[in-house]
TrEMBL record:
Residues 5-105 form the Fibronectin type-III domain. Signal peptide: none annotated. One of its GO terms (cellular component) is plasma membrane. This is INLR1 protein. PANTHER family: INTERFERON LAMBDA RECEPTOR 1, INTERFERON/INTERLEUKIN RECEPTOR. InterPro entries: FN3_dom (IPR003961), FN3_sf (IPR036116), Ig-like_fold (IPR013783), Interferon/interleukin_rcp_dom (IPR015373), Type-II_Cytokine-TF_Rcpt (IPR050650).
Amino acid sequence: SGYVRPPPPQNVTLLSKDFDMILTWTPGEGCPPDVTYTVRYESRERMGKWIKVPHCKNIHRTSCNLTCVLPNFFVKVRARVKAVSGRFPSPWVESQFKEYYLDVELAPPVLNMNVKENSIHVNASFPLASCVESFSWMYDLNFWEAGSEDKKQYEGIFRKKTVTIDTTALRGNYCLSARSSFQSIDFKHSKFSQPMCMLLNHKG
């Protein structure tokens, strides 16, 4: 039928982004349009045992989210991917090793604000996969008057905790911003979220 083996995927990379561990790749040069991809992974605990990833079998996209299939967040894993065209597979191409706990990259949390007469209640929601919710994610919160460099800092707040800010004495435009933080071997944090600002005790 004139089928040939498709070219192997290129730029195969296991990366952490926004709390997730994702394998990404690009199609090999001259890849046929009908090509699909299949992913497997192995962990340092069981070298040589490549485990299937059910949701990344015969897929058309060029990425695979491995976060919730990882057997252990404290062990290095790597993944591999092959292209398949018709019945013909390319060779497997492997990524480097990564460990979720050490290598996770954080995204800023989304702030939810409830402005009352003399206080603001703030909590943060994180774009987390359910399988990593139990980790001790924290967030840091900055609060300041717009235009001022003087920021009040609330640090190391547990992910599900609400911060209450007393605004009785405040007048004017005030802003909030937060970042996710996480203590593994070293201390990590995300960038700060875009500031959210509000007018306080604005009479009239």
